[in-house]
Amino acid sequence: MARSILQTESLTRRFGGVVAADAITLEIAPDEVHAVIGPNGAGKTTLIGLLSGEVVPQRGGIRFDGADITRLPVYRRSQLGLARSFQITSLFRELTALDNVALAVQAHRGHSFRFWRDARREDELRKPAFEALARIGLAERAGVRVDKLSHGECRQLEIAMALATEPRLLLLDEPMAGMAPDESARMVQILRRLKGSMTILLIEHDMDAVFALADRLTVLVYGRIIAGGPPEAIRADPAVRQAYLGEKDGGDRRDRHG
Q: Alpha helix locations (H) across 138-227?
């Protein structure tokens, strides 16, 4: 494997008596799509929170492009090139799609933040914002208020906001959550177009999407890695099938440590 862009070493986090991350050691190669899967309560969202800086590890370390980022705050990780999306979108619904992405550009670049009027006026913010929208297929919806967008379009918009920060590593937490089948198919196509232009760590319950996109997979159960490798090996692994892929209703349930 090429030199890893992201490495974790014995990353550990407990919430009371629940071990959400149990000595996780992980390597992600540059420009790969790496999916993390597992049953509900496996610790997937905790892992992505640890990587983004929103959750503080109790033990272990994280290195990004060779640099130790274990104790860096979220905004410093963003400046280094990490961006994430969330299970639940957090958008300014009274503003347009373009305004939302321009605000993301403004915040990332550290401009004086006099709320959204500056972001609406400044070409240096609006140009990259529009380019990000075009990249995920929302250029024609740039002037539409968020409260008029569909759920699937809101999910696309959140990814555009992440892309506008020019990430080297994109952390996606269930980007297809709540989507209709046609919206999920559209999101798969969007992410497929992004492959090779950046590294993507994907958490997703939709196994069809995972196997269509991922170069490699890591399987978590109760916060511990039980398997890792290419999709074909993971699909055939009996332990994985027992722990996750055989769950008929696994895609419809969540808990806070999932």
A: 151-163, 181-194, 207-213
